[in-house]
Amino acid sequence: MSGRAQERWKGGEFGERAFCVLAPNASPMTLDGTNTWILREPGAHRSLVIDPGPLEAGHLDRVGQVCGPVGAVLLTHGHLDHSESARAFAERMGCGVRALDPELACGDEVLSDGDVVEVDGLELRVVATPGHTSDSLSFVLPAEHAVLTGDTVLGRGTTVVAHPDGTVGAYLESLHRLRDLAEARSIKRIWPGHGPVIDQAIPVLDYYIRHRAERLDQVRAAVAAGARDAAAVVRTVYADVDPGLWPAAELSVRAQLAYLAQGEGLRS
């Protein structure tokens, strides 16, 4: 991860085209808060706003002060800490909302894998990265060799596979897809939906892939040792994790159990 991971994350300006406004919704699940990303080509009139975040007036005022006129609001996925304010903010700015989920889109077409969003010379490429949720998208900004990952990859720690909407198989495929983009040098850095920016994408993506494999091994071992439900697996596998995070861990465990049962089977 970037050296910024060791400091208190505050957002700020990155590259020549990005500014991150940190929402005031810090929690064990959202880390320092939701990252609202504002992208604008140098010298351009309009911006793109990614994940305007919670419906919090002060936060939206700060975003509005930085972004200027907005060409579109884009959503990485539909969780409320990213999307709650999208419709209201778009109405305020006189633009549409674009997302994979048609129920979240407003005033414009939905987004699909492979789409290119262009606003005043700024080009953003849409990459489907389901797994955390079924509607999770990442956005590649070629001019900065950066990818905005929402909750697919975080700036600190690892993410939840939000069962039943999120699935482990899809998540692993998404991580490998991002890894392939990094290997091809299409992306070098990660601008996440929570936590600090990551300046070297490949080591973090390798860690995420390895971590998922290790967790699956641990879940498999816990079941073999007698754990009969997700809660019992959590108590074994996540014993060193703050119990306040166990409900979220149980979502991932349920997703892991479903993946193992479908793909490999579980020894009784």
- What is the top-level CATH class? Alpha Beta
**Any low-confidence stretches, pLDDT <50, length ≥5?**
1-6
User: How would you name the CATH homologous superfamily?
Assistant: Ribonuclease Z/Hydroxyacylglutathione hydrolase-like
DSSP strand count: 11
Q: Quickly give the CATH architecture.
A: 4-Layer Sandwich
Q: What count of domains describes the coordinates?
A: 1
Largest sheet: 6 strands, mixed
**Which range best describes the helical content: under 10%, 10-25%, 25-40%, 40-55%, 55-70% or over 70%?**
25-40%
* Cα gyration radius (Å): 19 Å
Could you name the CATH topology? Answer: Metallo-beta-lactamase, Chain A
Q: Which of globular, elongated, flat, extended, rod-shaped describes the shape?
A: globular
Order of helices and strands: EEEEHEHHEEEEEHEHHH
The strands making up the biggest β-sheet line up spatially as 1-2-3-4-5-6
Secondary structural class: alpha/beta
Strand content: 15-25%
Q: Termini separation (Å)?
A: 39 Å
Tell me, rounded to a whole number, the average pLDDT. 94
The helix count comes to 7
